[in-house]
Amino acid sequence: MSPFATTPTCPEHAGLSRCGRVAERSAGDPKHKVVHVRAGRLELEGPRGVWAILPTHMVFIPAGRPYEIRTDDGTEVAVVHLDAPMTPWHHDGCWAAGTSPLAREMVDYALRWPRGRDRDDPIAGSFFRTFGLLCADWFSRQRILWLPTGQSPGIRAAIRHVIAHVDDGSLDGAASAARLSPRTLRRRFREDTGMTWRQFVREARMMQAMEMLASGRHRISDVAMAVGFSSFGAFTQAFSACVGRTPSDFARSQRGGPRAALGRPAVPA
Questions:
Q1: Which of 62, 226, 230, 251 has the least C-beta neighbours within 10 A?
Q2: Per-residue pLDDT averaged across 199-222, rounded?
Q3: Average pLDDT over the chain, rounded to whole?
Q4: What are phi and psi for residue 94, nearest 5 degrees?
Q5: Whether residue 133 is found in the same domain as residue 152
Q6: Distance (Å, whole) CA 96 – CA 117
Q7: Whether residue 130 is found in the same domain as residue 151
Q8: Cα separation of 252 and 231, whole Å?
């Protein structure tokens, strides 16, 4: 059975999967799930946006939320399934976060109770209640690794243009792609996505920068230029403000493998 799917009759449980390359779609599972990416890359698409979840990051998918998951070769994930009635969740949609040391240890400990565990185990019940309560803290800060998909054809065209030309991020170029005036695009973009144009361009640049740094194949100066920064210092300042770590610290955390942990949790859509 898929590590991402569960059934109404399953108790709360966790599993570790070297899933490799998969593509799965769900109309919404009966349980909340926390997916921790240990290696590779996971792309999660929901009704309003797309997340690119890198190693040392995790994502919360609420019960009943439609989603599509795509993973790369070599991807390894740990998935914790939580009963929705017992786990308070006060946000709309999926939320991504960097994995704190405590969250990593809790995910590791959850793996002692797999899918076929004894549902009457009182220790397991207490542990998963605590895990669910801690999610409110782990998934509580500024959004990273998320981009809106857009609800209208014009906004989707503008988003595609920026992703393809993230080093430019030009409002005029995106407006031409969307067949709208720059002023109209700016207004409709916020109405459609809930983000300002400036916020979107920043997120698109930081998302690509994080993926490039995580790959380990690029120098930081090359990443800065690729995402539209002419100054190494300006890129470092912008990246640190968005991610909570300098580009070099972030790159080192990705090279550190599964035990590396990021400091700043992040927020949803």
A1: 230
A2: 91
A3: 89
A4: -80, 145
A5: no
A6: 28
A7: no
A8: 21
Calpha distance 15→93 (Å, rounded): 23
Instruction: Give me the pLDDT at residue 255, please.
Output: 67
Res 142: pLDDT = 62
The pLDDT tens digits for 50-75 are 999 988 899 999 999 999 999 988 89
Q: Is 11 helix (H, G, I), strand (E, B) or coil?
A: coil
Both tokens of residue 125? Answer: 């019940």
By three-state DSSP, how is residue 142 classified?
Answer: coil
One domain, residues 217 and 252: yes
Contact 15, 79 (CB under 8 A): yes
Q: Please answer whether residues 32 and 132 qualify as being in contact, where contact means their C-beta atoms are separated by less than 8 angstroms.
A: yes
51 strand-pairing partners: 44, 146
Q: Are 30 and 248 in contact (CB under 8 A)?
A: no
What's the token pair of residue 38?
A: 């240990």
71, 20 contact by CB (below 8 A): yes
Please indicate, yes or no, whether residues 78 and 173 belong to a single structural domain of this protein. Answer: no
Residue labelled with tokens 């019940």: 125
Specify whether 27 is located in the same domain as 58. Answer: yes
- pTM value? 0.82
Q: Give CA–CA dist 50/116, Å, rounded.
A: 32
48: domain range? 13-138
Among residues 138, 158, 187, the one where a domain terminates is 138
158: confidence class by pLDDT, cuts 50, 70, 90: very high
Q: Are residues 123 and 33 in the same domain?
A: yes
DSSP 191-221: HHHSS-HHHHHHHHHHHHHHHHHHHT-S-HH
Number of H helices, E strands in the chain: 9, 10
Q: What 3-state DSSP class applies to 31?
A: strand
Residue-level pLDDT at 264: 35
Total domains, the chain: 2
